[in-house]
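Progress note, project year one: complex with LFPHGCPZ.
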Amino acid sequence: MIYGPNKPKSTNRLLIQTVWPFLLIIIVLLGATLFSLKIMTAVRAYVAGESLYSKAQKQAHISLINYLHSKSNEDYEEFLTQINIPLGDMKARIALQQAEPDLKTAYEGFVQGRNHSTDIPNMIFLFRYFSETPLMKEPIEIWTDADQYVIQTLVLGKEIHHKLSSKRLSINEETEFIWKLDSINADITPLEEAFSFSLAKTSHQIDLIISNLLVGITLFLMALGLIFSHRLTVQRSVALKQLQREAEKNLAFLRSASDGIHILDAQGNIQEASDSFCEMLGYSRDQIMGMNVTQWDVFFDPQELLGMLKEYSYQNERLQFETVHQRKDGSLLDIELSLVPVEQDEKRLIFCSSRDISERKQHDQQVERLAYHDQLTGLPNRLLFEDFLNKSLATSKRYHDFGAVLFIDLDKFKNINDVYGHSMGDELLKKVAQRLSSRLRKTDTVSRIAGDEFVALLPSLSTDQNKAAIAAMSIAEELRVALAEPINIDQHNCQITASIGVSVFPKDSENFNEILQEADIAMYRAKQNGRNTLIFFEHEMHDRITERFTLEQELRNALQNDELELYLQSQVDKEGTMIGAECLVRWMHPTKGLIPPDDFIPLAEETGQVVKIGEWVLSKACQTLSQLPFAASAFSLSVNISAQHFQQAGFIDFVKQVLAESGADPRHLILEITESLLIQQPQKVIADMQTLADLGIRFSIDDFGTGYSSLSYLKRMPLNELKIDKSFVNDIPDDANDSALIQTILAMAHHLGYTVVAEGVETQTQHNFLASLGCELYQGYLFHKPQPYQEWLNNIASLKPNKANQKSPD
Ligand SMILES: Nc1nc2c(ncn2[C@@H]2O[C@H](COP(=O)(O)O[C@H]3[C@@H](O)[C@H](n4cnc5c(=O)[nH]c(N)nc54)O[C@@H]3COP(=O)(O)O)[C@@H](O)[C@H]2O)c(=O)[nH]1
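Model obtained:
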């Protein structure tokens, strides 16, 4: 098994290393064969040349004899032609035998000797390099010996020609010439035979030598080849064994590696795993071998992980990242994973090394905790707080919402240290930290920035600065109260208070230091104000918020302290006969006196207290209905129901319960709702109204014309009454618009079958105008002002049945 990011050594190189000896053998054999052929061709050429030489010499002899007889120049010419052949060979040989061989002349000589032009280079080669060898030496010596006879023949021929050219030869002369010629021929013939024989012998011997040489070389090279092949086989087997050992070693090494080594295929299926990887994940080897990476890697989305692996397997680089592995028992491990893609047997694999870095992570977290947290309380320190605040500041600026920073300083903390000792002081700080943290939202941050100084970051309180300030104050107050509660440390009940400075952000060009400084300054003012209090950095905001906050707190107590009072304002018909009354709440503040609803109902709506107030008024109204004297027993009482109260879960049940408990007749109860109730979930509102209407309760639309009006919804509501808002009544009949509007409202209401109540009727003129338009009912100071409950009840009680249609005195 070989793993690695790169391919093994180049196959071409390996091939060359293996075959080069065989190539060499072939080249040597080929060379030897070509050389042998060259030698043999040359020898054969000499043999052929010798044949031509002998024939030419014989022919020259015959031509010269013929010439003696015929005296014909043709014969002489033939003689010259024939004698030229051995002369050419001689010329070639002499040229080659020179110290500096004359190759050109040699070539020309051999051509003259009628040797084949393609053989001549081989002949020259053989002569130059082998003339001194025993094989060639003998024929060359014989050939050299024959030179004299060739020359003698030539000389004799020339002499005969010379003689014949000038005179006729005598018989004797002719005979003498013939005798000389025969004599030369007799001398040269044995030499030619010897030359021929010697060449044949040389040729035969060279054939023999070359054959033997080739056989020898072949055998030698075969032996070499065999040796080399054997060596290769041995080497290959050694290498294979080595590879085998290496693979076994690798596998053993892999399995015993201390890191969690494992090999995946491109589909994330495990191919091999080290023991430590199995142990790391808590699986046996058998179990893990059938698993896929998505079964233990829980950091990535499975599909995303598989896609990533597939893509990565075709790359060629190492990759390292952190991930999370899940053990068999479900516990999680922080892992540093190193990947190396490899190719094995044409298959893409990924070599993975998982290192458990849980401890290191914990250590890093510990280091980070030390760097960014207060060691005593474990809270974020100033550095981390600064980071959080800067981020929160940026978010607030981007999304236009508001947050706040609270600067909390414990009052007279030094006394605790002095009296109880520093360890007790430390314990107290820890408990304070716990109390602060437990009272804040998850998104808030509390930090200890110095000895007994804490800061709290309250981000994203509201998109409205005022509401954000109110929320900040509410939280700060909760913290102040929480801290003021006794803290038990080692059986000691410690009492500590805190002064809190509040700064709302963002404001123009603020940064961390400025915000912290503002909160610090505000905290300092709280100290000066007598401690155990909270103060806003901005005076104006402080006054406004404090006032509102105080009111909210006081209103909360108002219900418990029975400070709410019920007032009733009677309603009359056209003739001025009392037909009912509207219940109106008042707050009898212990110090500020009577507070009208306009001053606290909006706040109650904001804080949700309007539900409790509404419940109180409704209960009181129902009790009143059930207690009405006989003279007023046909009266109806109208109760204002805020949209928030109406939509409160359980509102219908509450109404039913109050009716049941009081015994009031629902037919004498009118619920005044506003058009704003229809803004949210109109269908549900209409359904709930219908449920109550089915009980006999009537509905009136208060302040009609001032809000959201959808006639299509109005038509579907179980309505009985419309109340024309006093803002429209104020200026009638002088204001043409209001007059026209009231006219329209009345016409529409009558068309739909609703009774109309005009409210805020203060003058007779207003009354007359409304009456002229057909308005049925009236409410206003012209008839009755709102009266305290008991006073109103007393007046009602004094009504006589037959006087019930008379105007009651105020
Ligand atoms: N959800 C609840 N809202 C309530 C409740 N009690 C009162 N309110 C709402 O508070 C607003 C102010 O009420 P109030 O100060 O009581 O004023 C009422 C009358 O005093 C006043 N009125 C009546 N006649 C005249 C008049 O001739 N001149 C004049 N200037 N004021 C007059 O009108 C108010 C009654 O209005 P309405 O309720 O719209 O019929 C007021 O909006 C109340 O609804 C409560 O218990 N729950």
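Residues 171-256 form the longest helix (86 residues).
DSSP finds 26 helices and 22 strands in the chain.
No further modelling is planned for this target in the current period.
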